[in-house]
């Protein structure tokens, strides 16, 4: 190998590494920028206070959980536009079952998670078995989930009161809005971490994960090589629906209510986290680690802009530019 070839090989290796960890590098860069531009109070940077940092993680926990499920769907080359509406349906279901139907905590959680799983599986069947584009299926699913949430709630929000009497939810449900470890770590953040770790391990060490990447890389070749494409697709949509329902339960616990309008636009935030995290919208390439980094990056960006009282319209503009840059970097990524 000549010196020129060696240099070129090293250059390609460095380039590949940069693109592989683009979300982590981006998170570090945004974090450093947040420190630099953080306002201070009594000589202390507001951004670096423990309360603020844990608030960032709490704020991204729901979107992060949804984004983990969205990562699975996008890895197979699909999309799920119904996750925000599914969150609203799950939040409403949690509130109605606890307050109006006097269900216990565990039955409520199991029923709501089952609804999310079933909804996702049905969308997977429609997309994989009947060959309807996932965009169309989940766009219809968005409307159906919103409609079901309105019917279930009577078209209005259902407040959650806590106690032991009729019409009151178990006090344990309110823990979803609390913090642990001496009042520092929000419980939703812990749930997000557990979900992310389980998903990372699942995508790294199972045959199912290899099937997911194979389908996203080349569905026709995967089918010819014996991968159960239809079954994998259905399961992936089921996972996404299940995690959206989990986020809805957390949402209801944090806000002490369930509304059919909850989760509006969450599907776009989840997709943004996945894209910023480096997962290709074409499928076959990406990771949950990247998605977590993408969600945190957007959370830090939202936080520092809010701390500096940046106009909300300008915030939307800046976040949009970040997403466009992240998507543009994917085009430059070596194959």
UniProtKB/TrEMBL annotation:
Q: Which domain of life is it from?
A: Bacteria
What is an example of a GO molecular function annotated in this UniProt entry? transmembrane transporter activity
**What are the record's GO terms for cellular component?**
plasma membrane
How would you describe this protein's topology in the membrane?
Multi-pass membrane protein
Q: Where in the cell is it found?
A: Cell membrane
The record lists the membrane-crossing segments as 18-37, 57-76, 83-99, 105-122, 129-149, 183-203, 232-252, 288-308
Annotated keywords: Cell membrane, Membrane, Transmembrane, Transmembrane helix
Q: Which InterPro entries match?
A: ABC_transp_permease (IPR001851)
- Quote the protein name from its UniProt record: Ribose transport system permease protein
């Amino acid at each position: 190998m000549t010196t020129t070839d060696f240099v070129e090989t090293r250059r390609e290796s460095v380039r590949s590494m940069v693109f592989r960890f683009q979300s982590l590098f981006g998170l570090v860069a945004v974090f450093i920028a947040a420190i630099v531009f953080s306002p201070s109070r009594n000589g202390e940077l507001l951004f670096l206070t423990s309360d603020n940092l844990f608030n960032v993680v709490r704020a991204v926990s729901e979107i992060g959980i949804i984004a983990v499920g969205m990562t699975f769907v996008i890895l197979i080359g699909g999309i799920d536009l119904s996750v925000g509406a599914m969150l609203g349906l799950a939040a409403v279901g949690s509130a109605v079952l606890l307050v109006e139907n006097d269900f216990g905590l565990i039955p409520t959680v199991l029923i709501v998670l089952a609804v999310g799983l079933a909804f996702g599986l049905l969308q997977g069947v429609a997309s994989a078995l009947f060959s309807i584009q996932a965009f169309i299926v989940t766009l219809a699913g968005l409307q159906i989930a919103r409609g079901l949430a309105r019917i279930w709630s009577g078209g209005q929000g259902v407040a959650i009161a806590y106690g032991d009497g009729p019409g009151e939810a178990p006090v344990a449900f309110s823990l979803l809005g609390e913090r642990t470890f001496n009042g520092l770590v929000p419980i939703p953040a812990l749930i997000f971490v557990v979900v992310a770790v389980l998903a990372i391990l699942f995508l790294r060490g199972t045959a199912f994960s290899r099937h997911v990447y194979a389908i996203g890389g080349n569905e026709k070749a995967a089918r010819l090589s014996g991968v159960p494409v239809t079954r994998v697709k259905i399961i992936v949509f089921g996972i996404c629906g299940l995690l959206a329902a989990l986020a809805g339960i957390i949402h209801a616990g944090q806000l002490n209510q369930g509304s059919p309008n909850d989760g509006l636009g969450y599907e776009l935030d989840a997709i943004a986290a996945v894209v910023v995290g480096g997962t290709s919208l074409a499928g076959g390439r990406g990771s949950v680690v990247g998605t977590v980094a993408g969600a945190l990056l957007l959370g830090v960006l939202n936080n520092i802009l809010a701390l500096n009282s940046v106009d909300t319209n300008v915030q939307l503009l800046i976040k949009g530019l970040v997403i466009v840059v992240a998507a543009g970097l994917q085009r430059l990524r070596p194959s």
